[in-house]
């Protein structure tokens, strides 16, 4: 299962990387952590003419907090984000999801930006980004763009990044007081991709839900926001009945995929269970955050 | 019992002599081998399950820099000898033999069927070359289910057979089947199926074939369970004299039945090496291993059970269909073993058994750890269902039906006697180790809180190696040989045809020989893996503990007698007065007389005693298994089923087992736990899946899921006191039992967990989605 | 092809691998360090695990050229002078392995994990090793080996030599 022949470039700066992307466009694949791309190459499912390895672009790594936002450089390793106090304190939903990504050795190399640019709908980070309305900063030959999560994920393994653009940073809003989160997934084994996963965040204000975010992994070719369920929840007091109704709203009209690991009907049922469980956990956690 | 040595290794957790190299990366597996001038092979494989090969154009591949040769199926046929599979020739498969070639020539018969062989300077370039081979196919309707294979209108995979039946329908009866069923209080019908899953050793198949043109000698560095069977296979296919083929093996990364003889690909690689006069390495990648190496267990059963109202299982009438895939081999022999083993340790009075083996466009059915295991699954599953229908306890129904241990022993209705079987004891021990009433209380409380716990048990026996047969040992595996020699450096060398691939023979056999002969453990060397040096043997069938342990014991005793005989001349003492302990020969009561055994060997080799004294300190020992015997045990699992997600957790797993005398308890327990892990994997995770067009859907480790450290609980193992049958050799095999009995144990527990829903389970693969389907099906009624 | 320099098991190494060559293949083929095994080549089984710049990584998911300038430790480099490190010794004592094919990756992952989490409990150890597949053992003996290693690291026996010899130790007569 050997990789096919491929050319290789290792830019040292974002500008160099962008120049290379502008030159090669769709013939190039950006190599970040490699934990998703290299298996595709080994299976000869991906056949880029050139790999643009951005592991040497040091300006792309780092976690910083400013203006109610946490900015994570695209090349920030998942394990670094996991160990970051800023992430733990300010983006608890991301902190909850990170340990579920594969295994430690995967997170040693895998990057936050790489996972989000790869956009596997069954992966954890796309659901988190979608739930939190993260922003994606890309740089191309004509400058920088900021793309909201709702517009970032276009289809299966497809984002709105243009072929001559490089994802440089992802910005997550910092969680406010009274916010509780839960990331849960149904997976065949510990560390596997989710059959269904749910990123959930609830903000309580004087006992009532003032903000609700639910985004699924594994139900479609992109992460799916359960807008109807969120609308139901806002303004209400947490209760088992409310969460049951939210689960129904979130899953009644979905048409999940079927594969070896689960039928469409199974994904629906598992998704509903996750809504009930995640909302309960998020509501419980909300009380802890001041 | 004969007197045993002062040092007692047998029965102790002696640390493995394999481990220093294993733990430091100094093991030598096939892919670690590098020979001068070595080339690398890769196969072009069919993407289609069933198709005619209209044309194959290898010109672009041949022209790729770094590609040294490309061979098609037709070209390989010209340089090899057609014939049956070597393992089948060895164990004697009957019935029509479909003719097949090493690589597909006119037709491909499963997705992954090799059609061309590319040989290049590196595996990277060989795979590049494969992409340049152009094959034109014409689709044929795929035969992907046994039901279609049975249909005479299904397109035959093999023209010379005319249909897709690998072994035609046969029926046997034991006891008075019709009377038993006529007189029974009730007759119950079941349809039980076991899904396709597979061995998945961590190291795939592979070899380095090295043909030395000058002397015309083929050396194959193999990953195999028997260097001699591989040698026979290579010699047969290449039309070579046996003494011109040498097979060597070093460390092997697991097999579980997969690596026996030589696969079509390995034979093709050997032929290519001969054609090129250079060594050629082929190591399959994981995709090849999952799609093309072979799969197992796809069997279905229509079962009628004759039962009394008190829970006696009086008779069974079973119709079995086995899906042997394309290129059928060992699969056709499995029904006969299933038939023989179906009564198990129970008092079954009548058995009707019929079977058909079919051919389909899927990977070939290969041996997988306990190939006959479905008989235990079927029997232990229906006993639970019968118990529930009659309102009986699962433990009670088993105790009621167990054949009593008598002298002479009870005999299975299919003919095998049951000496020394401790099934009753194992069931009773489980009941002591697991507090069933306490569990039932906990289960009831959990149900109140919406949590579903279940408990299941199952029992089994396996022929490890099986009781002594009145007709005597039969077949090449009926006698185990070993050569033992005292070397001049004081090492006792054991030359055995066993080919350990995880069984730790280099440790266990040394323990036995050290005890028997009287040297320290470190002074025994177990030599394996070279057809020029070791006698015939095969590791498999859970036989080596008895057969090889036994020949090591008796052989060491014989060698010791020879050494003492020679020493009596050397030391001018009577043999009666001599003993060997701690590697020295000495006169009883006179420690100053001690001479190291190495010194004795050097003196023997010096020839100083002339022809009147036998100074050859070597024996060729043979052992027929002695009284042989059964291994067996009872397993119990406690599971929790999350009925909203279908996820099953195995909370506790308990084993009460009897594998005779233990050579090394830690090694025995490792074998049991590994087998159980595969059984749990089969139920919860593993399936070799195909779609209707015959495309394999489990071609990577993302889709073929094997258990991890989070999926297998601590497994508690109790060793029962065994019934000694033989004066000396009461070690019995343990390799396959865990994998045989774990699936029904876990399925029984899952059904118990889901009993509030009225679920009945007649299948072995229960992924989360299936659990929810089973529950929903009951609520829909 | 580019020339790369890196340190492997404490020694400087150079090579000129093709860009597409994985670190795993570079270690095995170019540096003759065949202790690192290939079990799947798509990053799931963990048999290829090595330590790069202090972190356990799957060497089949790194290109050799990406390891330029890095510090790599393979199974061969774990213990000096042919001895056994604490984890290796504990695994030997615990009968952790059977066929040995998963062993190098399992050992490297355990070493990396214990280095960062010396007080890990059994559940944490199982999770940490859940990305390393073993087909032979059912994992219990491996977990026992890691627990024993952790225990020994926490309270080393001052009388014991730092590394056991690679020769088989005197027979252990525990029953």
Number of domains of chain C: 2
Averaged pLDDT of chain A: 97
Radius of gyration of chain C (CA) equals 16 Å
What would the CATH topology of the largest domain in chain C be? DNA polymerase, domain 1
For the terminal residues of chain C, how far apart are their CA atoms?
Answer: 57 Å
Structural class of chain A: alpha+beta
Strand content of chain C: 5-15%
- By secondary-structure content and strand pairing, the structural class of chain C works out as alpha+beta
Low-pLDDT stretches of chain A are: none
The average pLDDT of chain C is 91
Per the CATH scheme, the topology name of the largest domain in chain A is Uridine Diphospho-n-acetylenolpyruvylglucosamine Reductase, domain 3
How many domain modules of chain A? 3
Strand order of the largest sheet of chain C: 2-1-5-3-4
CATH class of the largest domain in chain C equals Mainly Alpha
Instruction: Give the biggest sheet of chain A.
Output: 5 strands, antiparallel
What is the general shape of chain A?
Answer: globular
**Quaternary structure state of the chains depicted:** heterotrimer
Backbone shape of chain C = globular
The CATH architecture category of the largest domain in chain C equals Orthogonal Bundle
Strand content of chain A: 25-35%
CATH H-level superfamily of the largest domain in chain C: [2Fe-2S]-binding domain
Structure in a nutshell:
The complex is a heterotrimer of chains A (about 290), B (about 775) and C (about 180). With about 290 residues, chain A is α+β, with helices and mostly antiparallel strands.
């Amino acid at each position: 299962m050997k990789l096919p022949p491929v050319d290789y470039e290792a830019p040292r700066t974002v500008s160099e990387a962008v120049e290379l992307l502008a030159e090669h466009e769709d013939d190039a694949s950006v190599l970040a952590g490699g934990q998703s791309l290299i298996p595709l190459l080994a299976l000869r499912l991906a056949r880029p003419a050139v790999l643009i390895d951005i592991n040497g672009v040091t300006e792309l790594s780092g976690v910083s907090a400013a203006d109610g936002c946490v900015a994570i450089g695209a090349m920030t390793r998942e394990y670094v984000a996991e160990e970051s106090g800023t992430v733990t304190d300010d983006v608890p939903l991301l902190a909850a999801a990170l340990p579920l990504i594969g295994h430690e050795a995967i997170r040693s190399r895998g990057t936050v930006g790489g996972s989000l640019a790869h956009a596997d709908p069954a992966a954890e980070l796309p659901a988190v980004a979608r739930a939190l309305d993260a922003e994606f900063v890309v740089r191309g030959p004509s400058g920088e763009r900021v793309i909201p999560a709702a517009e970032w994920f276009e289809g299966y393994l497809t984002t709105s990044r243009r072929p001559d653009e490089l994802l440089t940073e992802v910005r997550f809003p910092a969680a406010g007081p009274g916010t509780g989160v839960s990331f849960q997934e149904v997976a065949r084994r510990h560390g596997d991709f989710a059959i269904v996963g749910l990123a959930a965040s609830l903000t309580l204000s004087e006992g009532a839900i003032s903000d609700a975010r639910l985004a699924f992994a594994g139900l479609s070719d992109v992460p799916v926001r359960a807008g109807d369920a969120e609308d139901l929840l806002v303004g209400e007091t947490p209760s088992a009945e409310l969460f049951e109704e939210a689960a129904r709203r979130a899953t009644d009209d979905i048409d999940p995929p079927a594969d070896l690991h689960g039928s469409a009907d199974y994904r629906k049922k598992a998704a509903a269970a996750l809504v009930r469980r995640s909302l309960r956990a998020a509501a419980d956690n909300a009380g802890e955050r001041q | 019992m004969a007197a045993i040595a002062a040092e007692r290794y047998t029965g102790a957790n002696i640390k493995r002599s394999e481990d220093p190299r294993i733990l430091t990366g100094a093991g030598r597996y096939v892919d670690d081998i590098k020979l001068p001038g070595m080339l690398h092979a890769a196969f072009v494989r069919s993407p289609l399950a069933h198709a005619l090969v209209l044309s194959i154009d290898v010109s672009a591949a041949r022209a790729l820099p770094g590609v040294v040769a490309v061979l098609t199926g037709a070209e390989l046929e010209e340089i090899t000898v057609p014939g049956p599979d070597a393992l089948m020739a060895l164990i004697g498969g009957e019935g029509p033999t479909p003719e097949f070639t090493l690589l597909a020539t006119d037709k491909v018969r499963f997705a992954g069927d090799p059609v061309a062989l590319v040989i290049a300077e590196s595996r990277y370039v060989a795979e590049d070359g494969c992409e340049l081979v152009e094959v034109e196919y014409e689709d044929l309707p795929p035969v992907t289910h046994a039901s279609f294979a049975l249909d005479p209108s299904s397109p035959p995979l093999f023209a010379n057979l005319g249909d897709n039946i690998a072994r035609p329908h046969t029926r046997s009866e034991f006891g008075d089947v019709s009377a038993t069923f006529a007189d029974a209080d009730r007759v119950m019908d079941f349809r039980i199926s076991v899904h396709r899953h597979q061995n998945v050793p961590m190291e795939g198949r592979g070899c380095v074939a090295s043909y030395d043109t000058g002397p015309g000698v083929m050396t194959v560095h193999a990953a195999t369970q028997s260097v001699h069977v591989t040698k026979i296979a290579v010699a047969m296919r290449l039309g070579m004299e046996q003494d011109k083929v040498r097979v060597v093996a070093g460390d092997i990364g697991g097999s579980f039945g997969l690596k026996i003889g030589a696969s079509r690909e390995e034979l093709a690689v050997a032929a290519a090496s001969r054609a090129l006069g250079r060594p050629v390495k082929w190591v399959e990648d994981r995709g090849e291993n999952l799609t093309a190496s072979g799969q197992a267990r796809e069997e279905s059963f229509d079962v009628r059970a004759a039962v009394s109202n008190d829970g006696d299982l009086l008779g069974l009438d079973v119709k079995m269909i086995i899906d042997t895939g394309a290129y059928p081999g060992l699969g056709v022999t499995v029904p006969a073993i299933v038939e023989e083993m179906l009564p198990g340790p129970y008092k079954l009075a009548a058995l009707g058994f019929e079977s058909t083996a079919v051919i389909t466009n899927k990977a070939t059915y290969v041996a997988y750890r306990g190939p006959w295991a479905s008989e235990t699954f079927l029997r232990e599953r229906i006993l639970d269902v019968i118990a529930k229908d009659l309102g009986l306890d699962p433990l009670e129904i088993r105790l009621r039906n167990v054949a009593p241990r008598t002298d002479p022993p009870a005999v299975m209705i299919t003919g095998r006697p049951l000496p020394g079987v401790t099934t009753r004891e194992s069931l009773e021990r489980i009941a002591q180790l697991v507090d069933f009433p306490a569990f039932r209380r906990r289960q009831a409380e959990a149900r109140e809180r919406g949590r579903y716990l279940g408990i299941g048990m199952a029992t089994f026996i396996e022929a490890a190696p099986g009781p002594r047969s009145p007709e005597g040992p039969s077949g090449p595996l009926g006698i185990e040989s070993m050569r033992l020699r005292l070397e001049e450096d004081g090492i006792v060398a054991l030359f055995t045809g066993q080919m350990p691939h995880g069984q730790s023979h280099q440790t266990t056999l040394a323990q036995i020989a050290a005890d028997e002969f009287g040297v320290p453990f470190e002074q025994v060397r177990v030599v394996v893996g070279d057809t020029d040096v070791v006698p015939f043997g095969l590791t498999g069938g859970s036989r080596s503990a008895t057969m090889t342990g036994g020949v090591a014991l008796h052989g060491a005793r014989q060698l010791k007698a020879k050494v003492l005989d020679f020493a009596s001349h050397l030391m001018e003492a009577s043999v009666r007065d001599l003993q060997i302990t701690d590697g020295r020969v000495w006169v009883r009561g006179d420690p100053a007389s001690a001479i190291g055994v190495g010194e004795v060997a050097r003196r023997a080799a010096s020839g100083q005693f002339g022809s009147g004294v036998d100074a050859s300190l070597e024996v060729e020992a043979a052992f027929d298994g002695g009284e042989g015997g059964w291994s067996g045990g009872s397993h119990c699992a406690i599971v929790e089923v999350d009925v909203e997600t279908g996820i099953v957790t195995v909370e506790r797993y308990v084993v009460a087992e009897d594998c005779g005398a233990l050579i090394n308890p830690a090694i025995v327990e490792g074998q049991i736990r590994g087998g159980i892990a595969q059984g749990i994997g089969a139920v919860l995770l593993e399936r070799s899946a195909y779609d209707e067009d015959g495309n394999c859907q489990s071609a990577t480790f993302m889709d073929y899921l094997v258990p991890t450290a989070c999926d297998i609980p601590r497994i508690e193992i109790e060793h029962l006191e065994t019934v000694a049958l033989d004066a000396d050799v009461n070690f019995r095999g343990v390799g396959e039992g865990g994998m045989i009995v774990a699936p029904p144990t876990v399925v029984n527990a899952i059904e118990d967990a889901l009993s509030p829903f009225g679920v009945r389970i007649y299948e072995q693969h229960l992924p989360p989605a299936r659990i929810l389907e089973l529950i929903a099906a009951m609520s829909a009624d | 092809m580019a020339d790369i320099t890196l340190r492997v098991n404490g020694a400087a190494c150079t090579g000129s691998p093709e860009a597409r060559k994985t670190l795993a293949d570079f270690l095995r083929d170019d540096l003759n360090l065949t202790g690192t095994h290939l079990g799947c080549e798509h990053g799931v089984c963990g048999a290829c695990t090595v330590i790069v710049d202090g972190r356990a990584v799957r060497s089949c998911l790194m290109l050799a050229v990406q390891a330029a300038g890095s510090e790599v430790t393979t199974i061969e480099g774990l213990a000096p002078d042919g001895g056994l490190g604490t984890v290796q010794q504990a695994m030997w004592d615990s009968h952790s392995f059977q066929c040995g094919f998963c062993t190098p990756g399992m050992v490297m992952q355990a070493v990396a994990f214990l280095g960062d989490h010396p007080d890990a409990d059994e559940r944490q150890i199982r999770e940490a090793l859940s990305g390393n597949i073993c087909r032979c053992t059912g994992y219990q003996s491996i977990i026992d080996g890691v627990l024993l290693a952790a225990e020994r690291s926490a309270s080393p026996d001052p009388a014991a030599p730092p590394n056991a010899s690679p020769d088989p130790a005197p027979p252990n007569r525990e029953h």
